[in-house]
Amino acid sequence: MKQQRLGWFQRLLKNRDVTALLAASAEGSVATEAALRQMVREINRRDIWEEPLDRLTYVVFDTETTGFDWRTDALIEIGAVRVENGQVREDQTFSSLIALEPGRRVPEVVRRITGLSEQELWRAPKVQDVLSRFMAFSSDAVLVAHHAGHDVNFLNVPLNQFYGIELPRRVVDTAQVARRLWPDTGEATLDYLIERMAIPPLTRHRALNDALLTARIWSVFLTLFTRKGLTRWGDFFTWMKTDVVIGDEY
């Protein structure tokens, strides 16, 4: 009965069949919106309190944008990678540029940092199509991002505009986790953490590479949590709201 209630589109989401999902999306935005709304409701209702942290599936994601203000700037790239059984699955990634809106330009500083040209972005898929594929990719996972508020705000604007939804409520911010582990980390930038944790660097400021770096950080965090006795999601959630410092290994 539950599968019947979820419907055909939700089954595609659960199976992460992106090709079929895109075909289904073409049938009309009303069907897509209804299915995505149902998916988010199901994710938000899912009870993971007792589930082992290192057995949950995570999708670690990052975005590139035209600026820092989610109210006036726009997404230009999304990258993501899955973490399963505590391991970064570099064979299971998501990466897409996003088309510029008519009349929107990319500041020169953003072009220089990312290496992206406006010509590439003019040829990219529309944001609503990229978002439906990203939601399919991440439909069975807990979301993780570094300084997650920035990425969440930028994703929620077009998600709300085109589908009337926002990302699921459960999003882990690795910067907040780092500050809880090590109160001396200050802003806990990605560069600071990969240096502190001796994680091999990648070329920065492209969404997939930054997602991969964040995923490697999260994988180390999962190992550290296990050593310290935080084995369930509920343990982690409770610890994040306490003043107990457990991060003394880096």
From TrEMBL:
One MF annotation (Gene Ontology) recorded for this entry: 3'-5' exonuclease activity
CDD domains referenced in this protein's UniProt entry, alphabetically: DEDDh (cd06127)
Top class in the EC scheme: transferase
Protein's name according to its UniProt entry: DNA polymerase III, epsilon subunit
SUPFAM superfamilies (UniProt xref): Ribonuclease H-like
Keywords: Exonuclease, Hydrolase, Nuclease, Nucleotidyltransferase, Transferase
Domain of life assignment: Bacteria
All residue ranges annotated as the Exonuclease domain in the record: 57-227
Record PANTHER family: DNA POLYMERASE III SUBUNIT EPSILON
One example of a Gene Ontology biological process annotation: DNA replication proofreading
EC numbers, comma separated: 2.7.7.7
Native source organism of the sequence: Kyrpidia tusciae (strain DSM 2912 / NBRC 15312 / T2)
Any one GO cellular component localisation term in the record: cytosol
